[in-house]
Amino acid sequence: METKTFPYKEIYFSKTEIFLQNKKFEYYSSPILSQYRFPHAFFTKCSSEKFLQLLGDHFNRNHVNCVLNQIHSNVIVFGSQSQKGSKINADGIVGDKCNQNLWVYTADCLPIFFADKVSRNVAVLHCGRKGLEKRIIKNLIKIFDNLGNSRNNLLVAIGPAISKKNYLIDKKTLQEFYRKAENKELTNYLSKTEKDFYFNDFNNLQEQNLNQLDLKRCAYMQILDENILSTNIDISNLCTYELKNEFNSWRRSNTTSRQWNLICS
Predict the structure, then answer these.
(1) What digits encode the pLDDT tens for the residues 198-246?
(2) In this structure, how many other beta carbons lie within 10 angstroms of the beta carbon of residue 38?
(3) How far apart are alpha carbons 252 and 108 in whole angstroms?
(4) Which residues share a beta bridge with 101?
(5) Mean pLDDT within 68-74
(6) What is the pLDDT of residues 36-69, one digit of tens each?
(7) What is the 3-state secondary structure (H, E, C) of the chain?
């Protein structure tokens, strides 16, 4: 049987500086979302919850901020369920009205934006290892299907998150991840070399009983499994662990601080 190949490339996201009320804010943008004119921002550590109103005004006047109480789940809500100061336990938001600002916060996990280039529907996920295990990406795309969106029109941007070499977990945790999150139908077509590329267990870490896990690539595999075009997926090459001057990282410093990520409906 011919082996399928799955092109994977992390790319440059452009950086922008803005000044609001004499304070500098920095954020990164996905090329494909910018091309289709979806207002969005992957903010650096300069952001915090107290600035959401200020930042929201800059991107989307007359908006309503939609913010979650994130719990590492696969629960997704609509923006109208999480607005006007209320928070609901979930890790994904789908815009269901105009002028909604959809926010998630991260500090190593993946912020993932979804946007339909025809219907203009948008959504955002907070997705870490637990989210991948619980298939939150699959849940989100099912919601888009129910809204009448075509998967061929769906754009996806995976923002700054921890890199493979800095995300180390013990063997038992890795095996549990394989059991829950690995796409068995897709990986049946991969050679051992290709499997190692996506789910890597390096020999030089065995003495420490640690293994590297690439969250970005795993998310990419799950997105491909939902028949999203690889050409419609942007993946940032920025690592929150390594870029300590730009991003908060829980694994680097056990910080409770986060950076915020926004897409506007």
Answers:
(1) 555 444 445 457 889 999 999 999 999 999 999 999 999 999 999 999 9
(2) 22
(3) 9
(4) 65, 264
(5) 96
(6) 999 999 999 999 999 999 999 999 887 899 999 9
(7) CCCCCCCCCCECCEEEEEEECCEEEEEEECHHHHHCCCCEEEECCCCCHHHHHHHHHHHCCCCEEECCECCCCCCEEEHHHCCCCCCCECCEEECCCCCEEEEEEECCCEEEEEEECCCCCEEEEEECHHHHHCCHHHHHHHHHHHCCCCHHHEEEEECCECCHHHCEEEHHHHHHHHHHHCCHHHHCCCCHHHHHHHCCCCHHHHHHCEEECCHHHHHHHHHHHCCCCHHHEEEECCECCCCCCCCCCHHHHCCCCCEEEEEEC
List, for residues 134-151, the tens digit of each pLDDT value: 999 999 999 999 999 999
d(CA 213, CA 258): 21
